[in-house]
Amino acid sequence: MTNWLPDVFGTRKPVVAMLHLDAMPGDPGYDSTAGVAAIVDRAKRELAGLQEGGVDGVLISNEFSLPYLTKTEPITAITMARIIGELQTELAVPYGVNVLWDGRASIDLATATDAKFVREIFTGVYASDFGLWDTNVGEVARHRHRIGAAGVKLLFNIVPESAKYLADRDLASIARSTVFACKPDALCVSGLTAGSPTDTQSLSIVKENAGDTPVFVNTGVRAHNVAEQLAVADGAVIGTTFKHDGKFENEVERSRVEELMREARAFRDAL
């Protein structure tokens, strides 16, 4: 596999920012009084801060749909499609989507909104905070083919948050077999929860066993460690760090985006 990242993002070692959407209709945290319009308004504010701060791409997800479903209700992806439609004229960087935690719905949403990539849990069986989590990558791969979504890049999160792989297998073998059998476009390595540090040793193990498949560090990147993480990874997905005071629930703060992107660009320029 050739490294497709420069073709999509226009740079090596891209920084992809999370655009966290507020709770959707049907979610416990949904504000039915403010409605979907309020979700759109916040998304527009945060998108502006991320893009003006210099990120290379954005990943739009229903991050506040807690607790997550492993097979989402139709209203979630439908509402996200409306929101992305209202953001289209303001999206100036490549974007992806993630309907948590539903790979099939993520691919459907990407196809409907012309997103370049998705990130999801496509393989494995897990004991998780959301119950027993069983995936079916073969079915999802065939669905992707049927709907003409071969051009949508699939980022496989092989160290999912809030979950543990049930099989007694080491991370190196998981990375090798996932690449061989499932043909991911990239692998993502995470910490325990959003914003939690990603173990550098785990990141290195996945990178060493992924062959030519790009590897993203998926959580816990900060301005002070972005160079260290990008020295191993081929890119980074960053959300909580960009929020006011570095807190998951807060809105994006442009100055924090600019600070991290200065460090990322300095590292890339020195390569």
Automatic annotation (TrEMBL):
Q: Where is the signal peptide?
A: none
Q: Which domain of life is it from?
A: Bacteria
- Report the family membership: Belongs to the BtpA family.
Recorded hits in NCBIfam families, A to Z, give: thylakoid_BtpA
- Which PANTHER family does this UniProt record tie to the protein? SGC REGION PROTEIN SGCQ-RELATED, ZGC:162297
Protein name per UniProt: BtpA/SgcQ family protein
Source organism: Leucobacter iarius
